[in-house]
Amino acid sequence: MESSVMDAPEDDPFPEIGRKLFAGPCDFVMGAARLEQLPAMDRLEIAFAGRSNVGKSSLVNALTGRKTLAKTSNTPGRTQQLNYFTLGSEAYMVDMPGYGYAQAPVESVRTWTSLVRAYLRGRASLARVFLLIDARHGIKAVDNDALDLLDSAATSYQVVLTKIDQVKLADQPARLAETAAALSRRPAAFPVILQTSSREGLGLAEFRAAVARLIDERR
Questions:
Q1: Most CB atoms closer than 10 Å: which of 20, 85, 111, 219?
Q2: CA–CA distance, 156 with 128 (Å, rounded to integer)
Q3: Rounded to whole angstroms, how far apart are CA atoms 109 and 80?
Q4: Rounded to whole angstroms, how far apart are CA atoms 170 and 163?
Q5: C-alpha distances out from residue 121 to 17, 56, 93, 150, 157, Å
Q6: Would 115 be classed as within a structural domain?
Q7: Residues 158, 130: contact at Cβ < 8 Å?
Q8: Is 1 domain-assigned?
Q9: Is residue 59 part of a domain?
């Protein structure tokens, strides 16, 4: 496993392509609570997954430079459907319901968990899931459950350590190393770990470049 914090080669076009991509049209399309409500699979999809309150919506907003594109909340479990956003004309971003603790009725949690499982297993247009892990805490048991699900669904995923600014600089290499070790034997894990801070803007350029590169490869 690698980190993406190293500088990109000077001739790498994807940082600039990614910047333009996320600076372009990014609009809310729809929220789907059932599979039959999902849009046609006419473009690539990148999805954001993670524990409740890990910062998925904040990252979507930071990447696009729009403060309220995705609704954020201090209440775990606010996102209870698959929220679709355009990413230029070639892709969708999908903000998935958080897993783990959520202040919502048990039946609601069960319903959207079932939706997520079905989405991961049957969405041919899904190019990659970006699995957000809180850098302050690392991979927890509930995250391992999500990793198991992604591996069993053979869904390509890439881990993103969020809130990296809240980890002491001296402790960051160890956190990255332990995360890489935990992912080393997982078959569906993409071998580059991203590190971001929505609040400080850290790692956003690398994230945008990774998405631009993925779209180019799948094109």
A1: 85
A2: 5
A3: 8
A4: 15
A5: 30, 21, 17, 9, 13
A6: yes
A7: yes
A8: no
A9: yes
Q: Does residue 3 sit within a domain?
A: no
* CATH number for the domain that contains residue 53: 3.40.50.300
Token output for 179: 């995360």
- Which residue reads 């319903």 in tokens? 111
Number of domains in the chain: 1
> What pLDDT is stored for residue 73 in this prediction?
42
| E strand residue ranges, the chain | 2-3, 28-32, 44-50, 82-87, 91-95, 126-134, 157-162, 192-195
Walking along the chain (219 residues) 10 residues at a time, the average pLDDT comes out as 57 93 90 89 93 86 83 49 90 86 57 79 92 94 90 93 95 96 94 94 96 91
Of 20, 18, 38, 21, the C-alpha closest to 29 is 38
Q: Which domain holds residue 67?
A: 8-218
CB atoms near residue 112 (< 10 Å): 21
Q: What is the predicted pLDDT for the residue at 109?
A: 56
What is residue 203's predicted lDDT score, i.e. its pLDDT? Answer: 96
